Amino acid sequence: MSQTQELEKTLWLAADKLRSNMDAAEYKHVVLGLIFLKYISDAFDRIVPMFEDEIGVDWSDHSEAVKDISTSERVFFVPPSSRWKYLLGRAKLPTIGKDIDEAMDAIEKDNPSLKGVLPKDYARPALDKQRLGELIDLIGSIELIKKTTAVEDENGYKSEDLLGRVYEYFLGQFADAEGKKGGQFYTPQAIVKLLVEVLAPESEKRFYDGCCGSGGMFVQSEKFIAMHEHRIGKISIFGQESNPTTYKLAKMNLAIRGIEAKIELGDTFRDDKFPNLKVDYVLANPPFNVSDYSRNEADERWQFGIPPAGNANYAWIQHFISKLAPYGRAGIVLSNGSMSSEIATEGEIRQSIVDADLVDCMVALPPQLFYNTGIPACLWFFSRNKTNGKFRDRTNEILFIDARELGEMISRRHRDLTDEDVSKIAGTYHKWRSKEDYEQYEDEPGFCKAVNIQEVRKNNYILTPGRYIDFKDEQLDDEDFEEKMERLTVELSAQMENSSTLDEKIKENLAKIGYEV
């Protein structure tokens, strides 16, 4: 375990201990709000010397000048009474809850982009102020680990991103603690990483997620670009989230990493906030099999057929396809049933989408990856134009990948994909798609197969990978039959003799306590 991972785990155990009897869903906002406050205060502290040289240490009468410097340095302006050092000094006072609420209010007032985003309920009587003070001390200790903004740890993360790492880790831990409810705002990191690794996004592009949860898809996209292009990707991000609380989490999650994004609050089906938007990449994990959603039969997004009223899966699919630019691509998480369902119009819509040659790759995922559902899931990858000159012409081809046997159990309830699993799936797709590496691609029994659309048509447009991928050959047993039977008979005889001995011992022990068998 790395030093950073140990820190994350230690902080979580300490923070969770302070939770006492508070529900995880409620405590989540207490902790994440404080981590965010600590982050923006630290970021602001780093630029303080810049305006001290310019206007001196007493800058109370020069707040506008300081705000201008903050804006130019892309950090949030933090007024004196909202800075972490000030709050840390008041952590043991009974008024600390009120102090934090006022700090959040002041920050929102001075930073319009955060208006209505920060939690402001720390003064409520139900929140133990002593434990709140201890939590502030705990989060304040993160700074002790951060040595410099220039050094990368063993995982390639700069130490200035430490709070972002902790924030992300806490999101996952809270999702685990909340169980079914937690998955509504958090997609497991391995799934997000797999989507991004397959799509391999580039900088200077536009990204969209119409059910963005806490913004994990955007964070991972930025990480991918930074890792592969060795710079922060200048990408344009557009997101929409219908849950007001989760919307706030997304705004904070992106802000804590300095990622600029246009995130809107609202029901994507009832009120699409970006009706004319066309993007290069869509990454999304919409809620599975939603039966109660706003559906207008005259909606222009239903290009391939009107989705059934009782299930939103094909409404989501068509909505995301409608956002793709001429060379746009999408990666979407859906339930396994979406690959073969014939309910109402779903089969017809799937047929139209396949015939339009939009489906690029289908991936069946292992079970138990998600916090909020035991429903088996899959990944759909779409490509608006398979003749893009940058890649191999894949017209009328679909790659099927069966990843159900991959991953490892990390707890009794949850499985996770390893980095090797993610690399295997993404690497297979990239070899199949590539002009240069296509010769290295091979169909692998039990794992992957490239299929012509004609074969999909023969199978009634079902897109389940297991329908097309060849069975893995079982290892041949070359032991002579007579020799094998003789060996097994000897083993069985020994086992039966041992069983008889054990039966007699059980009878003797029962007899000693007055029970005859």
CATH superfamily of the largest domain: Vaccinia Virus protein VP39
**Helical/strand content category:** alpha/beta
Average pLDDT confidence is: 85
Radius of gyration over C-alpha positions, nearest whole angstrom: 28 Å
Order of helices and strands: HHHHHHHHHEHEHEEHEHEEEEEHEHH
Q: Helix share of residues?
A: 40-55%
Strand order of the largest sheet: 3-2-1-4-5-7-6-8-11
Class of the largest domain, according to the CATH hierarchy? Alpha Beta
Relative strand content: 5-15%
For this structure, the CATH topology of the largest domain is Rossmann fold
Largest sheet composition:
9 strands, mixed
Choose one word for the global shape: globular
Number of strands: 11
Oligomer: single chain
The unreliable regions are: 144-160
Number of domains: 3
CATH architecture of the largest domain: 3-Layer(aba) Sandwich
**What is the distance, rounded to the nearest whole angstrom, between the alpha carbons of the first and last residues?**
55 Å
Number of helices: 16
